[in-house]
Design a protein that fits this description.
single chain; 230 residues; mainly alpha; 3-methyladenine DNA Glycosylase II, Chain A, domain 3; Alpha-Beta Plaits; two-stranded antiparallel sheet; 7 helices; 6% strand; globular
Length: 230
Amino acid sequence: MTATVSATSTAVARLAALIDAALPQTQCTRCGEPDCAAYALAVAEGRAGIDQCPPGGAEGVRRLAQLTGRPVLPLNPVHGVEGPRALAVIDEAWCIGCTLCLDACPTDAIIGANKRMHTVMAQHCTGCELCIPVCPVDCIQLVNDSGSRTGWDAWSAGQATHARERYAERKSRLQRQGSDSAATVTAQGIAPATAEGSQAAPADAAQSRQAAIAAALARARERRSAPTGQ
C-alpha cells in the first residue's frame, strides 16, 4: 500500500513539473492559485482545470491537454481572457514611494525606495497586473507590449524561464530575510512575554506604514488639486 501511494505521489510530482514547464510563468494568480507551480500541482492532482491560465491562452490549454490527456477546452472566462503581453509603467511624477508595488511584484521588476519614485524594469516585468490594485494613487498602468500577438505567441520560452528564475530568486530572498530576522531575535534574546506582546511590534509597524501612506496620499491629492504652474 505504501509503495503504491509513493508511486502515485511520484507520478503526480512528475506531471506537475511538466505542466509547470508548459506555463508562461507570469505568476499572475488569475488561475486561482498563488503561483504557476501551485496551479501545475492542482492540475496534476485533478483539482483544477487546464483552462484557467489566460496568459497561456488557447495554445497553453492545448499544451496542458497534451500533457494530461484531457480534452481541449476554451479558456474559462471566470479567470480572464487571452490578450497581448502587458507591461506595467509607472507615472513617476505621481508616485508617492509607498513601496506597496514592490511588495506585490512577483519578479522584483520594480525598483525604488521608501518615499522615492519607483520605476519598472521592463525586461523583468511579466504583466501580471498585481501591482495595479495595490497602488493607492493609481499611478501604474498596463501598456500593450506585443501588438496583436496574444498568449504564447506573445511570450517566449526564454521569457518564461527568466520569469521563473526571477520568481525563485525573490522567494529565496524573502526566505533568507525571514530567517535572518528570526536569528537576530534569537541572538538578542528577545522573546515576547505574551501573545498580545508578540503582536505589538508588527501592529505598530503596520500602523506606522499606514500613517505614512495616508500622509503621502494627502500630499498627492494636494499636488493634483493645485493650479497648474504652482
